Amino acid sequence: MADQRPGAPGGTVRTDHPDEHRVEVEERGSFSFARCSCGWFAPGRRSRDKSRRDAAGHLLETGAEVA
Questions:
Q1: Range of the domain at 34
Q2: What is the pLDDT of residue 11?
Q3: Which of 4, 19, 30, 34 is an S-S bond match for 42, by CB 3.0 to 4.6 Å?
């Protein structure tokens, strides 16, 4: 079975806007997952809506603006 998890966060430090959180929802096969530029990621979901809610929840937890 193929690994459906996003790649591990790389050890690089962002210098452009290190406190900025950019989330996106990606799809791999029948699963989607949310991940953020800070290295956070949510587990794979079959529901895109649940992945979007995971992303929005992360932004709320970090105090970032929800677009």
A1: 23-62
A2: 38
A3: 34
Q: Give ∠ CA 48-49-53 in degrees, rounded to 5.
A: 115
pLDDT tens figures, 11-49: 333 445 556 888 999 999 999 999 999 999 999 999 999
Per DSSP bridges, beta strands 31-36 and 23-28 are antiparallel
Q: Which amino acid is at 26?
A: E
Residue 16 DSSP one-character state: S
User: Taking a C-beta distance cutoff of 8 angstroms, is the pair 20, 64 a contact?
Assistant: yes
User: What's this model's pTM, rounded to 2 decimal places?
Assistant: 0.66
Instruction: Say if 6 falls within a structural domain.
Output: no
